[in-house]
Amino acid sequence: MAAIIDGKKISGQIKDELKEKVSALKKEGKTGALAVIQVGSDPASSVYVRNKKNACAYIGIESLAYELPEETSEKELLGLIEELNEKEEVRGILVQLPLPPHIDEGKVILAIRPEKDVDGFHPQSVGSMVIGEKGFVSCTPAGVIQLLKRSGVEIEGKRCVVVGRSNIVGKPMALLMLRENATVTIAHSRTKNLPELCRQADILIVAVGKPQMIGTEYVREGAVVIDVGIHRNADNKLCGDVKFDEVEKIASAITPVPGGVGPMTIAMLMANCVQSIEEG
Fold it and tell me: In sequence order, what DSSP letters do the residues of 13-54 get, joined into one string?
């Protein structure tokens, strides 16, 4: 049976470390706030926003909430972002995705100044990561790296397969694993012989966005399996992209859903916010 990689516990450790750091920064006179903007009242987004506010309160940084109605225009949203860009006390700006269809997500991401882009989505942030320069890194992939390191999983020299190629998880995940000296393959829905390819992985990271797609036929015995997916199944219970009950029997370590990657995303968002205050 696989060791369970406990994201809740590890994210708690990171937040405790950040809490101490924030306290030390305050003594140096360095403070700052995270501005969180939500357009509409999507229930999942509301939960994420609440969790982000709670995490800010826990580590000791201020959070400013902007809850805008669904019908807010793109122009109004871009105007608010510009205001927040100019506010010195606002060290991070986060726009909760997805946005309503009438708002162009790409324009919104571009409007946030790179030095306040704590989500790590701005093209400048992504470019910095590609060439190994300093900048904010996408929170979910950064969280996966911390999960592996703090669970004692060696990355260097290992074969890693990332299933998924989104700009938010798949691509940055592959680049970060490469930065840690893994040998990386990116696979996706069009990949031929996907199960066979996945079975070559020492570390299999699944961000394919399909509920319980990955069963034992995709996993080599003794592999480490990281499940980034989160869905609700027919019984309204949370599940991931991996068939946990099956895969747990053959993997050496695995993340559960919930309680695996999810809590790490918010912990790494907090880490980016603290970095922004430190550099401000």
Answer: HHHHHHHHHHHHHHHTT---EEEEEEES--HHHHHHHHHHHH
| Annotated active-site residue in 21, 38, 52, 146 | 52
Q: Is 199 helix (H, G, I), strand (E, B) or coil?
A: coil
Can you give the CATH number for the domain in which 72 is found? 3.40.50.10860
Which of 21, 38, 117, 119 is flagged as catalytic?
119
Tokens (6 digits) for 21: 């750091």
Is residue 40 within 8 A of residue 95, CB to CB? The reply is: no
119 as an active site residue: the answer is: yes
Phi, psi angles (nearest 5°) of residue 268: -75, -30
In which band, very low, low, confident or very high, does the pLDDT at 174 lie, cut at 50, 70 and 90? very high
The answer to whether residue 52 is catalytic is yes
Token digits of residue 88:
């010195």
28-57: average pLDDT: 93
Domain count within the chain: 2
How much is the average pLDDT of 190-202?
97
Q: Are both 256 and 145 inside the same structural domain?
A: yes
- Annotated catalytic residue: which of 21, 38, 96, 212? 96
149 and 253 housed in the same domain: yes
Do the beta carbons of residue 214 and residue 241 sit within 8 Å?
yes
pLDDT value, residue 45: 87
Predicted TM-score (pTM) of this structure: 0.95
DSSP 118-176: TT--SHHHHHHHHHT-SS---HHHHHHHHHHHHTT---TT-EEEEE---TTTHHHHHHH
What is the per-residue pLDDT for 42? Answer: 85
Q: 280 falls in which pLDDT band (50, 70, 90)?
A: confident
